[in-house]
Design the sequence.
């Protein structure tokens, strides 16, 4: 199947006071119609930069697109004119952000904010757009949508605001929905509601989702495929089950092992063993050397790790010299 | 709850409310009831966890317990001393025995102070030992929490989030407290760093015999670190039990929903898992508390009785639950 979105060797650099640093170093991945790609990693590993690059929203300066390509349905986005990008953003590719409070405009009613997108992309009249906005609020599960359309963002709870964000994002029936930590700011019971809503929308409209998260639990529940990122590189990629059950990269193993898990076994254990730790911290980008960025924190590191490993293998790809394939 | 040792902290009938602005000069003043008549004990050398969603009153309850927020009613006994009867100077002296670790390691350290001075400050304020001895104590604390004594001269911005939280922990330990209130100490950290801090907190408890009052919304974290857990909803404790009882046999429908909706690696999209949105909507406003059970509006098995009659927290010999139909 032809991928909907194809990112090849994408490289993003930033000018900082430490000189030019590479925030994203040769990331490649595809997103196919109707699937969910989970992108996971710690803060500062390049997850959000990847999303912003696809949307053409890297602030420049200080950001520099240093190489690579982003193809949407065969159309190159890195060289596309701003006018074309504006058509695509919100129309074909839309995005929901982590913090729904700061991504909605506090001085406009939520109905107007949804209608704005519809008028802009579909050329509808104000009245038509408002009718659609109310309908969208109903689709995303907001009670009394007609009344709520004339509420301001501060009158809504966090969960409802995120529903409004989703309503805006799906208002023009996009092909790709990029969700950047959509539930991190929400409580678990509300998180469950938002995930359920995203799954329903995916099934009903066939939209492909790129979900950025640091939560392996969310990956298990939402993703078909997973890309694990570390210090600006994709270090492991594959089917969600393969990655969760047979992680190949020591970093992925660490990420899975350090979660305090809920489950029958731990619920009945008299004492729980200490959590697995990944020692140290992510190195700052300006101090990255030539070798594997994870080597300093890795207990499997050896001489070969002084050279940065390539991402190898299909469909389960791992960038680690110590990895010997799916033997586990 | 059979406890062999006397509790270090014992809270009876604690209530906290905050006055809201009047609607007009002659308008009636409304009160936001943040914590409503709760009681709990922290056993010596153990950890009591308080879990709940945002706005459930868990932080307010903990802060009122150590008089950082004023309580309207209740008795708090710390090591046999009634804290609410102390003068402010007597209370200040008591504070060396109870310390706090805050959620956000970025805003809880003074950016203009060197971290050595930050950790030393409690010793200076409490007049512990002589000035030379204090410096040696700070160096010892740095090693205890996994930092190097030569880092004492640095400023907070030169540390990562996890290291800053270690500094907060060192500061909390400086006066040799018996009780530490941990207010979401790991929720601002990445999972890999979270595991390091949780392991450290457990190690320190074993070595120093500390008691923790641990506030969190993350059930995995709570299960890992707590011996006894109180679940709060809209300012009340709805269920309290030992770790094993609570996680293996939750009884309150809200606790069940929290456990059901918590993300887990075992819940896979590939296996067709869908989170049931067990609870719908949002919690009611603490300004307008329902007459009956506070959870009734979101509870899947609420009856007429639940809407009209408030269930008391009752102890069945093993655990306490506030529900009319806990076993159905």
Sequence:
């Amino acid at each position: 199947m032809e991928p909907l979105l194809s990112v090849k060797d994408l490289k993003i650099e930033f000018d900082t006071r430490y000189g030019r640093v590479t925030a994203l170093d040769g990331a490649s991945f595809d997103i196919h119609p109707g699937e969910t790609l989970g992108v996971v990693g710690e803060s500062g590993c390049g997850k959000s930069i990847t999303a912003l690059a696809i949307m053409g929203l890297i602030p420049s300066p200080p950001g520099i697109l240093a190489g690579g390509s982003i193809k949407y349905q065969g159309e190159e986005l890195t060289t596309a004119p701003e006018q074309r990008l504006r058509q695509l953003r919100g129309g074909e590719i839309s995005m929901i952000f982590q913090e729904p409070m700061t991504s909605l405009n506090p001085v406009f009613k939520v109905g107007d904010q949804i209608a704005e997108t519809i008028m802009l992309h579909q050329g509808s009249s104000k009245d038509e757009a408002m009718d659609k906005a109310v309908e969208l609020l109903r689709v995303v599960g907001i009670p009394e949508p007609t009344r709520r359309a004339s509420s301001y963002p501060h009158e809504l709870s966090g969960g409802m605001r995120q529903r409004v964000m989703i309503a805006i994002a799906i208002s023009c029936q996009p092909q790709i929905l990029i969700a950047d930590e959509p539930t991190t700011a929400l409580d678990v019971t509300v998180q469950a509601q938002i995930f359920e809503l995203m799954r329903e929308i995916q099934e009903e409209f066939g939209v492909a989702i790129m979900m950025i998260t640091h939560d392996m639990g969310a990956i298990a529940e939402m993703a078909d495929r997973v890309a694990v990122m570390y210090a600006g590189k994709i270090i492991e990629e594959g089917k969600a089950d393969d990655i969760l059950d047979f992680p190949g990269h020591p970093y992925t193993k660490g990420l899975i092992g350090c979660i305090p898990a809920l489950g029958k076994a731990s619920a009945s254990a008299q004492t729980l063993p200490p959590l697995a730790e990944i020692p140290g911290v992510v190195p700052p980008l300006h101090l990255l050397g030539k070798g594997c960025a994870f080597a300093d924190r890795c207990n499997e590191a050896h001489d070969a790790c002084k050279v940065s490993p390539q991402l190898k293998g299909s469909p389960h790809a791992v960038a680690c010299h110590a990895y010997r394939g799916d033997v586990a | 709850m059979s406890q062999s040792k006397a509790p270090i902290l014992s809270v009876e009938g604690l209530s906290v409310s905050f006055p809201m602005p009047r609607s007009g000069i002659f308008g009636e003043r409304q009160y936001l009831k943040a914590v409503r008549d709760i009681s709990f004990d922290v056993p010596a050398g153990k950890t009591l966890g308080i879990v709940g969603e945002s706005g459930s009153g868990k932080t307010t309850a903990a802060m009122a317990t150590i008089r950082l927020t004023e309580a309207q009613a209740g008795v708090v006994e710390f090591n046999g001393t009634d804290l609410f009867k102390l003068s402010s100077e007597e209370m200040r002296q008591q504070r060396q025995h109870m310390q706090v670790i805050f959620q956000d390691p970025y805003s809880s350290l003074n950016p203009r102070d060197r971290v050595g001075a930050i950790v030393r400050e409690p010793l200076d304020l409490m007049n512990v030992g002589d000035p030379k001895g204090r410096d040696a104590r700070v160096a010892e604390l740095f090693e205890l929490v996994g930092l190097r004594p030569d880092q004492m001269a640095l400023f907070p911005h030169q540390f990562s989030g996890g290291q800053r939280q270690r500094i907060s922990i060192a500061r909390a330990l400086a006066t040799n407290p018996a009780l530490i209130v941990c207010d979401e100490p790991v929720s601002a950290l990445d999972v890999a760093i979270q595991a390091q801090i949780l392991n450290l907190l457990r190690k320190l408890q074993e070595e120093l015999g500390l008691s923790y009052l641990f506030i969190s919304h993350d059930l995995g974290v709570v299960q890992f670190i707590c011996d006894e857990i109180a679940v709060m909803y809209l300012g009340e404790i709805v269920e309290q039990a030992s770790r094993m009882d609570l996680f293996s046999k939750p009884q309150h429908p809200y606790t069940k929903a929290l456990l059901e909706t918590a993300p887990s690696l075992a819940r896979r999209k590939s296996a067709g898992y869908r989170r049931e949105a067990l609870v719908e909507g949002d919690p009611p406003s603490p300004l307008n508390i329902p007459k009956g059970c506070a959870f009734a509006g979101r509870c899947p098995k609420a009856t007429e009785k639940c809407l009209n009659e408030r269930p008391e927290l009752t102890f069945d010999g093993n655990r306490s639950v506030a529900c009319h139909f806990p076993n159905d």
In short: The first strand of chain A starts at residue 5 and ends at 16. Chain A has a mean pLDDT of 88. Chain A touches chain B through 54 residues (CB under 8 Å). Chain A has one domain: 5-107+152-259+274-310.
